[in-house]
Design brief:
This protein has 299 residues and is α+β, with helices and mostly antiparallel strands. The chain has three domains: 131 residues, no CATH class; 96 residues, no CATH class; 38 residues, no CATH class. The protein has nine helices and twelve strands. Helix 3 packs across helix 9.
Length: 299
């Protein structure tokens, strides 16, 4: 990996391109967006309003906030986009957007068959057949990172004995108040054992390649971002949750049985990258030069 351009400039004894006047990175971003970026390279603007660590940089903005900053720079420099002090080929022999491009299915290299979706992505069309009893199917939706879609996962749930230990007397007989519940369980169990399984198709749909696809700027920044879009916060590390009134019914049912707070996801306004603001400008430039009027946001 080449030396970050900002570090290279510092090693050569150059002062930062932009004077922050002791402003914090967040205050600097506000200052720049008030009409103070005209004629200044995007890389210089991005590199002057970020926090820096040994290996990464951080912006106190969400992905959409960072896009807004970039759009503001483009508006101030309409018709005169100076992305960087140098050309990409002067610093890199190869510089690419974070396109997915695999030789085979990333879920299982033994999968066969492909399909091209309407967006131009090559996807795995491997299909497996699930045999399930339809009355006893349970499902949940989850975002699948390999297909980048919301997938419905199906599984079969056999009826379970609902009776607690106190439902029986000393001789092991069911107490009368639990008889109806027990009979219902027995009917469900017979139904389960007698019901025929029905086939359901489960298509892999993992993305194999996006080669040739025009990526939105939002997608590029999300893929480059090292920081999860939400933080896990704890309202009580030593005991149960203190905010159960704010939880959904499903979360409350889950958290009620826990003796400690499992943490809650909370959005934040931060993005983190493994390169400096000058390199980020190269990514924006490469996005912009993909095609006339490339998309900014994901659909």
């Amino acid at each position: 990996m080449p030396i970050p351009y900002a570090m290279l400039k510092a090693l050569e004894g150059e002062v930062p391109f932009l004077d922050k006047s002791r402003r914090s990175p967040k205050a600097q971003s506000y200052y720049l967006m008030k009409g103070n970026m005209e004629g200044i390279p995007l890389g210089a603007c991005l590199d002057s309003c970020r926090w820096g660590g040994q290996r990464t940089i951080l912006y106190e903005m969400s992905v959409k906030g960072l896009i807004g900053f970039i759009q503001n720079w483009m508006s101030q420099n309409e018709g005169n986009h100076i992305w960087h002090e140098r050309k990409i080929e002067e610093l890199y022999t190869r510089f690419e957007l974070p396109l997915i491009n695999n030789e085979s299915c990333p879920r299982d290299k033994e999968h066969k068959g492909t399909i091209m979706d309407l967006g131009g992505r090559l996807r795995c069309s491997e299909t497996k057949e699930l045999l399930l009893k339809p009355t006893f199917i349970q499902s949940y939706n989850a975002v699948d990172s390999l297909s980048q879609t919301l997938r419905t996962e199906l599984h079969e749930s056999k009826p379970t004995d609902p009776l607690p230990e106190e439902a029986f007397d000393a001789k092991g007989r069911i107490l009368s108040i639990y008889e109806h519940e027990w009979e219902q369980y027995q009917r469900n169990l017979r139904h389960f054992e007698e019901e025929e399984k029905v086939p359901f198709s489960d298509v892999c749909y993992a993305i194999i390649s996006e080669k040739g696809l025009i990526l939105p700027l939002e997608t590029i920044l999300k893929r480059l971002n090292l920081r999860p879009e939400q933080d896990t916060v704890y309202c009580n590390r030593l005991g149960p949750c203190r905010i159960t009134k704010e939880l959904t019914k499903e979360e409350k049912a889950q958290y009620d049985i826990l003796e400690f707070c499992p943490g809650h996801l909370r959005p934040h306004n931060k993005v983190e990258f493994p390169f400096d603001g000058w390199d980020l400008a190269f990514y924006v430039q490469t996005w912009y030069e993909q095609a006339p009027n490339p998309p900014i946001f994901e659909k």
